[in-house]
Design brief:
Layout lengths: L1 H21 L51 H9 L6 H16 L4 H10 L7 H4 L20 H13 L8 H8 L20 H13 L3
Helix pairs in contact: 1-2, 3-7, 6-8
Protein backbone atom coordinates (compact mmCIF):
# COMPACT_ATOMS: atom_id res chain seq x y z
CA UNK A 1 0.00 0.00 0.00
CA UNK A 2 2.90 2.33 0.80
CA UNK A 3 4.35 1.67 -2.63
CA UNK A 4 1.15 2.80 -4.37
CA UNK A 5 0.80 5.86 -2.18
CA UNK A 6 4.38 6.76 -3.13
CA UNK A 7 3.40 6.37 -6.76
CA UNK A 8 0.40 8.66 -6.29
CA UNK A 9 2.70 11.24 -4.72
CA UNK A 10 5.38 10.93 -7.41
CA UNK A 11 2.80 11.09 -10.15
CA UNK A 12 1.24 14.20 -8.66
CA UNK A 13 4.65 15.85 -8.57
CA UNK A 14 5.33 14.86 -12.17
CA UNK A 15 1.99 16.22 -13.35
CA UNK A 16 2.63 19.46 -11.50
CA UNK A 17 6.06 19.84 -13.11
CA UNK A 18 4.67 19.01 -16.52
CA UNK A 19 2.03 21.66 -16.03
CA UNK A 20 -0.74 19.03 -15.87
CA UNK A 21 -2.16 19.93 -19.27
CA UNK A 22 -0.69 23.42 -19.37
CA UNK A 23 -1.53 24.48 -15.88
CA UNK A 24 0.21 24.37 -18.44
CA UNK A 25 -21.48 -11.21 -20.09
CA UNK A 26 -18.92 -13.20 -21.46
CA UNK A 27 -18.43 -16.71 -20.06
CA UNK A 28 -15.20 -17.23 -18.16
CA UNK A 29 -14.77 -13.62 -17.03
CA UNK A 30 -14.06 -13.49 -13.29
CA UNK A 31 -17.00 -11.43 -12.11
CA UNK A 32 -17.58 -8.45 -14.39
CA UNK A 33 -20.12 -6.02 -12.91
CA UNK A 34 -23.03 -8.11 -11.54
CA UNK A 35 -22.79 -11.51 -13.18
CA UNK A 36 -25.30 -14.11 -12.01
CA UNK A 37 -22.58 -16.65 -11.22
CA UNK A 38 -21.32 -14.34 -8.48
CA UNK A 39 -24.76 -13.96 -6.95
CA UNK A 40 -25.14 -10.36 -8.06
CA UNK A 41 -28.48 -9.05 -9.27
CA UNK A 42 -28.35 -7.08 -12.52
CA UNK A 43 -30.19 -3.79 -12.31
CA UNK A 44 -31.32 -3.95 -15.92
CA UNK A 45 -30.29 -0.34 -16.59
CA UNK A 46 -30.25 0.56 -20.26
CA UNK A 47 -26.90 1.16 -21.95
CA UNK A 48 -26.46 4.73 -23.08
CA UNK A 49 -24.94 5.78 -26.38
CA UNK A 50 -21.37 6.99 -26.22
CA UNK A 51 -21.35 10.68 -25.34
CA UNK A 52 -19.32 13.22 -27.27
CA UNK A 53 -16.86 13.76 -24.44
CA UNK A 54 -15.55 10.22 -24.89
CA UNK A 55 -13.72 11.17 -28.08
CA UNK A 56 -10.54 11.96 -26.16
CA UNK A 57 -9.86 8.24 -25.66
CA UNK A 58 -10.00 6.12 -28.82
CA UNK A 59 -8.08 3.08 -27.60
CA UNK A 60 -9.49 -0.17 -28.99
CA UNK A 61 -9.14 -3.70 -27.72
CA UNK A 62 -5.80 -5.32 -28.37
CA UNK A 63 -4.13 -8.54 -27.38
CA UNK A 64 -3.56 -8.89 -23.65
CA UNK A 65 0.12 -9.79 -24.07
CA UNK A 66 1.49 -6.30 -23.49
CA UNK A 67 3.92 -6.24 -20.57
CA UNK A 68 3.24 -3.93 -17.65
CA UNK A 69 5.54 -0.90 -17.45
CA UNK A 70 8.33 -0.81 -14.92
CA UNK A 71 7.49 0.95 -11.66
CA UNK A 72 9.72 3.92 -12.54
CA UNK A 73 7.67 4.50 -15.71
CA UNK A 74 4.21 4.56 -14.10
CA UNK A 75 3.97 8.31 -13.82
CA UNK A 76 5.11 8.81 -17.42
CA UNK A 77 2.64 6.25 -18.78
CA UNK A 78 -0.26 7.76 -16.84
CA UNK A 79 0.57 11.28 -17.93
CA UNK A 80 0.75 10.29 -21.58
CA UNK A 81 -2.45 8.25 -21.43
CA UNK A 82 -4.72 10.48 -19.44
CA UNK A 83 -3.39 14.05 -19.40
CA UNK A 84 -1.26 14.81 -22.45
CA UNK A 85 -4.16 14.73 -24.93
CA UNK A 86 -5.87 17.71 -23.28
CA UNK A 87 -4.86 21.09 -24.63
CA UNK A 88 -5.52 23.01 -21.44
CA UNK A 89 -6.92 22.61 -17.97
CA UNK A 90 -10.07 24.59 -18.74
CA UNK A 91 -11.01 22.11 -21.47
CA UNK A 92 -10.50 19.22 -19.06
CA UNK A 93 -12.58 20.85 -16.32
CA UNK A 94 -15.35 21.65 -18.81
CA UNK A 95 -15.58 18.00 -19.84
CA UNK A 96 -15.62 16.88 -16.21
CA UNK A 97 -18.49 19.28 -15.61
CA UNK A 98 -20.33 17.81 -18.59
CA UNK A 99 -19.99 14.34 -17.11
CA UNK A 100 -20.98 15.35 -13.58
CA UNK A 101 -24.62 14.47 -14.35
CA UNK A 102 -23.66 10.79 -14.46
CA UNK A 103 -22.29 10.88 -10.93
CA UNK A 104 -25.39 12.70 -9.76
CA UNK A 105 -27.32 9.61 -10.89
CA UNK A 106 -24.94 7.09 -9.30
CA UNK A 107 -26.20 5.98 -5.89
CA UNK A 108 -22.76 5.10 -4.54
CA UNK A 109 -20.62 7.92 -5.96
CA UNK A 110 -20.61 9.87 -2.68
CA UNK A 111 -19.29 6.82 -0.81
CA UNK A 112 -16.53 6.28 -3.37
CA UNK A 113 -15.53 9.93 -3.24
CA UNK A 114 -15.38 9.85 0.56
CA UNK A 115 -13.10 6.80 0.45
CA UNK A 116 -10.79 8.45 -2.06
CA UNK A 117 -10.44 11.52 0.10
CA UNK A 118 -10.21 9.92 3.54
CA UNK A 119 -8.23 6.74 2.80
CA UNK A 120 -6.34 7.23 -0.47
CA UNK A 121 -5.96 10.97 0.22
CA UNK A 122 -6.96 11.88 -3.33
CA UNK A 123 -8.47 15.35 -3.07
CA UNK A 124 -7.79 16.68 -6.56
CA UNK A 125 -9.25 15.80 -9.97
CA UNK A 126 -6.84 12.90 -10.53
CA UNK A 127 -9.48 10.51 -9.16
CA UNK A 128 -11.68 11.52 -12.08
CA UNK A 129 -9.01 11.77 -14.78
CA UNK A 130 -7.08 8.51 -14.31
CA UNK A 131 -7.98 4.97 -13.17
CA UNK A 132 -7.34 4.09 -9.54
CA UNK A 133 -4.27 2.16 -8.37
CA UNK A 134 -2.89 1.34 -11.82
CA UNK A 135 -4.44 -2.12 -11.83
CA UNK A 136 -3.13 -2.79 -15.33
CA UNK A 137 0.43 -2.20 -14.16
CA UNK A 138 0.62 -3.11 -10.47
CA UNK A 139 0.18 -6.70 -9.30
CA UNK A 140 -1.76 -6.48 -6.03
CA UNK A 141 -2.12 -8.98 -3.19
CA UNK A 142 -5.08 -9.68 -0.93
CA UNK A 143 -3.57 -7.83 2.00
CA UNK A 144 -3.33 -4.67 -0.09
CA UNK A 145 -7.12 -4.47 0.04
CA UNK A 146 -7.47 -5.05 3.78
CA UNK A 147 -8.76 -1.52 4.38
CA UNK A 148 -11.03 -1.44 1.34
CA UNK A 149 -14.81 -1.73 1.92
CA UNK A 150 -16.85 -4.12 -0.25
CA UNK A 151 -18.04 -1.27 -2.48
CA UNK A 152 -14.49 -0.28 -3.42
CA UNK A 153 -13.52 -3.89 -4.13
CA UNK A 154 -16.54 -4.11 -6.44
CA UNK A 155 -15.69 -0.83 -8.19
CA UNK A 156 -12.02 -1.74 -8.65
CA UNK A 157 -12.89 -5.16 -10.07
CA UNK A 158 -15.15 -3.55 -12.65
CA UNK A 159 -12.62 -0.79 -13.32
CA UNK A 160 -10.41 -3.35 -15.04
CA UNK A 161 -13.22 -4.04 -17.51
CA UNK A 162 -14.01 -0.35 -17.88
CA UNK A 163 -10.42 0.39 -18.86
CA UNK A 164 -11.04 -1.70 -21.98
CA UNK A 165 -14.35 -0.10 -22.93
CA UNK A 166 -16.80 -2.55 -21.37
CA UNK A 167 -20.38 -1.18 -21.36
CA UNK A 168 -22.14 -1.93 -18.07
CA UNK A 169 -25.73 -3.08 -17.82
CA UNK A 170 -25.86 -2.15 -14.14
CA UNK A 171 -27.12 1.45 -14.04
CA UNK A 172 -25.00 2.56 -11.10
CA UNK A 173 -21.79 1.17 -12.58
CA UNK A 174 -22.69 2.67 -15.94
CA UNK A 175 -23.20 6.10 -14.40
CA UNK A 176 -20.10 5.86 -12.24
CA UNK A 177 -17.71 5.05 -15.07
CA UNK A 178 -19.29 7.41 -17.60
CA UNK A 179 -18.58 10.22 -15.17
CA UNK A 180 -14.84 9.49 -15.33
CA UNK A 181 -12.74 11.26 -17.91
CA UNK A 182 -10.71 8.23 -18.94
CA UNK A 183 -13.67 5.94 -19.69
CA UNK A 184 -14.80 5.29 -23.25
CA UNK A 185 -17.77 2.87 -23.55
CA UNK A 186 -17.19 0.68 -26.61
CA UNK A 187 -18.18 -2.97 -26.13
CA UNK A 188 -21.34 -4.64 -24.89
CA UNK A 189 -21.05 -7.80 -22.79
CA UNK A 190 -21.69 -9.84 -25.93
CA UNK A 191 -18.97 -8.04 -27.89
CA UNK A 192 -16.36 -7.92 -25.16
CA UNK A 193 -13.28 -10.16 -25.53
CA UNK A 194 -11.45 -10.89 -22.29
CA UNK A 195 -8.33 -11.70 -24.29
CA UNK A 196 -7.60 -7.99 -23.96
CA UNK A 197 -6.43 -8.38 -20.35
CA UNK A 198 -2.70 -8.53 -19.66
CA UNK A 199 -1.22 -10.83 -17.02
CA UNK A 200 -1.28 -8.14 -14.33
CA UNK A 201 -4.96 -7.45 -14.94
CA UNK A 202 -5.81 -11.14 -14.85
CA UNK A 203 -3.95 -11.51 -11.57
CA UNK A 204 -5.77 -8.56 -10.02
CA UNK A 205 -9.14 -9.71 -11.36
CA UNK A 206 -8.73 -13.10 -9.75
CA UNK A 207 -8.02 -11.51 -6.37
CA UNK A 208 -10.76 -8.88 -6.61
CA UNK A 209 -13.37 -11.38 -7.82
CA UNK A 210 -12.59 -13.57 -4.81
CA UNK A 211 -12.89 -10.60 -2.44
CA UNK A 212 -15.99 -9.09 -4.03
CA UNK A 213 -18.97 -9.54 -1.70
CA UNK A 214 -20.82 -6.34 -2.65
Amino acid sequence: MKKRMLFVFLFAVTVALAGCVEAGDTDGNPGVETQEENGMEDSGGENREENTGDSQNTETQVSGTEAAPEEADWHTVYYERYYAAWEDEDEMIAELNNRAVYHENCSFYGDVNQFLESVLEITDISGLVEPLLGLDMVAMEKEDFADFPPLMIHVLKNQIYAMHGYIFKDEDLDNYFRGLLWYTPQYTAEEFDDGVFNETERHNLEILAELDTY
